[in-house]
Specification:
alpha+beta, globular, 8-stranded antiparallel sheet, Jelly Rolls, 2 helices
């Protein structure tokens, strides 16, 4: 009798753990009911790009030619969630709130996507940086060939970036008051002070002559 009761207890505990695990997985899914939606149409019809430069197959967006890819829709405050995979020496980027895709450098904000796996301390142009403006708090990018996970939040003057589960960027755009200057006194390459950057615009993925892959790209627009 004791053995039977013990077996039942073990079985019930195992079932409870399984149910808890399943509930946790369900809670981590980004569902339409929670305000999430795919950023890209399955045929990329909601994007602007040169024919042959990007493909979306089995849920994976891949760079296959030359030129960036841009959403036709504009976004202001939002959470962008995605995974990316790099090849060796890959250089790409995620552009936010870009007013003019023909001048993305000066009318949008770039979250750097770069193979900087081997560095000791990341700088303002390494993976996870707000390019040329703010270095990530720590090195979190994985080695080439492995999938990384970005969660990027834009809310008013605040930009936050989480890479592989660690917050690496907490940026207040209003602190960037001078064109070509960062708050720490270092120079950047931009003709517009970041406090004056558009607070709404297109989202873009940069092509920079090296392979890069994105998947599970979802967006959740935020209300005011």
């Amino acid at each position: 009798m004791f053995k039977v009761k013990t077996t039942m207890v073990v079985f019930l505990v195992a079932m409870l753990l399984l149910l808890t695990s399943c509930a946790g997985l369900q809670g981590n899914r980004l569902t339409q009911d929670d305000g999430w939606r795919d950023l890209f149409a399955k045929d990329l019809s909601n994007c602007k790009y040169q024919s042959g430069s990007w493909t979306l197959k089995k849920g994976v967006l891949a760079r296959t030619g030359y030129g960036d890819i841009w959403t036709k829709e504009e976004f202001g405050d939002f959470i962008l969630d995605l995974e990316f995979k790099l090849a060796k020496k890959t250089n790409s980027g995620v552009f936010l709130r870009t007013a003019d895709s023909n001048d993305s450098i000066n009318t949008g904000i770039e979250v750097q996507v770069l193979d900087s796996y081997g560095i000791t301390e990341p700088g303002k142009r390494d993976c996870g940086a707000i390019y040329d403006c703010l270095a990530p708090a720590k090195k979190m990018v994985k080695k080439p060939g492995e999938w990384n996970h970005y969660t990027i939040t834009c809310k008013g003057n605040k930009i936050e970036v989480v890479l592989n589960g660690e917050q690496i960027i907490d940026m207040d755009l209003d602190q960037w008051t001078q064109a070509g200057k960062n708050p720490d006194g270092t120079n950047n390459k931009f003709k517009t002070a970041y406090k004056d950057m558009p607070r709404a615009g297109h989202i873009g993925f940069q092509e920079h002559n090296r392979p890069v892959w994105y998947r599970n790209v979802k967006i959740k627009p935020l209300g005011n």
